[in-house]
Batch of 2 targets.
Target 1
Amino acid sequence: VVFNKADLRAPAANEIERLDRGGIPRVMVSAAAGTGILDLREALLRLAPADFFDNRRLVSDLVPPGEVAVLVVPIDKEAPKGRLILPQVMAIRDLLDGESMALVTQERELRNALTRLARPPALVVTDSQAFLKVAADVPRDVPMTSFSILMARFQGDLTEQVRGTLGIERLKGGDRVLIAETCTHHPIGEDIGRVKIPRWLTQYVGARLEFEHTQGRDFPGDLSPYALVVHCGNCTGNRREMMSRLHRARAAGVPLTNYGLTIAYSLGIFERALAPFPAALETFRGARV
Ligand code: SF4
């Protein structure tokens, strides 16, 4: 139950008691004063039906039935042995569900793969770490994005995270940046969260930044010490939790972006990587002016 006009009067004590007895959540808001809105959003997130979070498509809405998506999957020493990672598997399955096709290739075979198609693919999806090479090899008129950006849309709120990406522009030397991952994998070699993103962000900002890392459920309750949160694609998590993290960041006034968006931005190919998502691209262009 939402009690509006909380700035004018409080609900009767017996009314509150009745709701509490029935286990019915209550939120006090004042639309006029703008108070309680964040509590209301949090309550809606908790109560929204599972369908609201689960009934979404990862990529097949971008690839019409019968059309081809090219998936670029680097096999480097960070890739798990003998298997694909979850976002890649999810993309293939979703394309099959959508009655479209997936052509999976490593980045060094991409040009060759494209020449073998009778017509251009509807979409190219790459691991974000191969963005630059893939952007160079894919013709400008072929839409291109990354698995991580697809996950930002699927598991969270792409438009909100696009706005969060603009927080990179405000970073300055000494700022604290939180890099958050949903799973607890052991970082090896040139790990994307531990090594590559800190390197690309530092190069972009041109000053030393303080990086901190969290994994699993250790996401901090208080985000206010951070100038930016960079979140992974949350492939092993669920959308409800990701929306809650986004909400927490918004409440703290801290921009939250994700791996793929950060990489595309730092490498100067942000607009190209957002081209398949017109609303998000428009948000970016509008927020920049
Ligand atoms: S949960 Fe995050 S860090 Fe772990 S594999 Fe998925 S995207 Fe990568």
Note: The two ends are 40 Å apart (CA to CA).
Target 2
Amino acid sequence: QQIFKANPSYAIGDPTQLQNALLNLAINARDAMPEGGVLTFETKIVELDEKFCGTKGEKLVPGKYIEISVLDTGTGMSEETQKRIFEPFFTTKECGKGTGMGLAAVYGTVKNHKGVIDVFSKIGEGTTFRVCLPLASPVCGVMEEETAEAVNINKKLRLLLVDDEDIVCAIGKEMLEMGGHSVYVCRNGRDAVEFYKNNWEDTELVILDMVMPQLNGAETFKLLKDINPEAKVLLSSGYSITGEAQKLLDQGANGFIQKPFTSQELAKSIAEIFSDRGLYEYK
Ligand SMILES: Nc1ncnc2c1ncn2[C@@H]1O[C@H](COP(=O)(O)OP(=O)(O)OP(=O)(O)O)[C@@H](O)[C@H]1O
Ligand SMILES: [Mg+2]
């Protein structure tokens, strides 16, 4: 059964890991219903407030989340079992059947994506696993199916990421660092220009938001180019490519990426900029 109410429903992360996590939950649900039953996937948008986040011990940021629930009408679990299910190697399945690593991995994945997982269960009635992942911001339109194109990164870059939005900075930085790059983040154009003035020789690429208060992307771009006419700049915007962005591309900006982007899209945009130097290759 499917009840999909999350719209928009875009979360940023590693699709393979997330798929595996959902698969693990589904397999557990199936195993809990040897006589058959109903397996339900449900999604909706929820707002996690400070109070809730505070009870979670981990550093959970209040805000909008996509809630993905996997419900079964199976055996359910005792309180005792519920307390231990996320422990590695904890299993109630007979020897050779379960490794007990399923939920430990799910827990790790959800945590890596800055989300949270809960369980509700009653013996004889069934179990619900509820996963909440941060909703991608700021624009959540319909995304095209992603082509699974692997990008081979042969060089680690020093990058300057300029964006006025918390979530873009946080996720962007993490994605880039996962790709092995080192990242300096500026929250506005003025800081970016100041940083670039002192560090342009050690900055191989600037990822620049188009829409920012005070100094916007276009103005910042011009000042960066005044400092270093060879500056490499990847423009980013929540809007699709506009006249403004096109103008900057004509003036020598090196690329454009639409937010929200996946790590895959980001890696690809960067690779395209550096492909001429042979630092990257496509597989
Ligand atoms: N939907 C569920 N209903 C009832 N019990 C569950 C459910 N999901 C998990 N459990 C309990 O939690 C335990 C741990 O689950 P986990 O997925 O970590 O390991 P496993 O399924 O036993 O082994 P494997 O790693 O091979 O999947 C299970 O053995 C089971 O007792
Ligand atoms: Mg399992």
Note: The chain has nine helices and twelve strands.
